[in-house]
Amino acid sequence: MTLTQTIKVNSAFFVPYSLFLLAGGAVLALFGKTDIHLFINIHHAILFDYFFRYWTLIGLGWLIFPVVFGLSFIRLRYVIIAVAAFIISAAINDTIKQIVDAPRPAEYFGELHRSLYLIPGVTVYHWDSFPSGHSTTAFCLFCMAALVARSNLWKATWFMVALLVAYSRMYLSEHFLIDVYTGSIVGVLSTVICYNLAMNMHWLDKFPAMDKPLFRL
Which has the closest alpha carbon to 90: 48, 55, 57, 132? Predict the structure, then answer.
């Protein structure tokens, strides 16, 4: 299967993701990161504070374990793809973070002597803002979930789950839009490339176990 075919078959994930890239790119081109973040920051509510405080935890690295566990009941090849994509995306993300060493919103606005609304009980970090690791992880692994899902509803649902993780990082003032935007690209590209490479490595077909589940219900 070619890359174009993969995207077409999984359009329920990639169409809304493309719209997100277009809309996000337009916003980034038209407005500065200061204005974008302040707009997000002033729109808050107690219910959203509680929701995003916990929803953001989905984007932590532990997400690889339930994803791999679920994929192990489908195909071993999928497990290998997910692990490879996760490692590659994390390595790219962390490398960029170390090189750029960008300030997070709390630090950035502190230097401007501007206050932000911060949710009580949430630890706010000050550096290594670009790109967002939570967004990278969420888009990497939920893109993988979408690729193996049979239902278009589930493909679209996995996109929304990842998008809400990315938004939670801005809502909590942990990242700017450019951080989550770039993190999503790193995550999705890592997964799609690993998926297409592994699915087209025909020498792996010599090993029947590759396309069988590790565990059976």
Answer: 132
The pair of three-digit structure tokens given for residue 79, joined into one six-digit string: 């497990």
Residue 8 lies in a domain: no
CB 214 within 8 A of CB 76: yes
Q: Domain of 47: which CATH number?
A: 1.20.144
Averaged pLDDT, 110-125 = 92
Q: Does any domain span residue 22?
A: yes
* 116 domain-assigned: yes
Q: Where are the alpha helices (DSSP H) in 31-151?
A: 33-42, 46-55, 64-71, 76-100, 105-111, 133-148
Distance of CA 104 to the CA centre of its chain: 18
Whole-angstrom CA distances from 8 to 5, 11, 151, 152, 153 are 5, 5, 14, 12, 15
Residue 5 lies in a domain: no
pLDDT tens string 44-95: 999 999 999 999 999 999 999 999 999 999 999 999 999 999 999 999 999 9
Contact 67, 141 (CB under 8 A): yes
Q: Are 13 and 155 in contact (CB under 8 A)?
A: yes
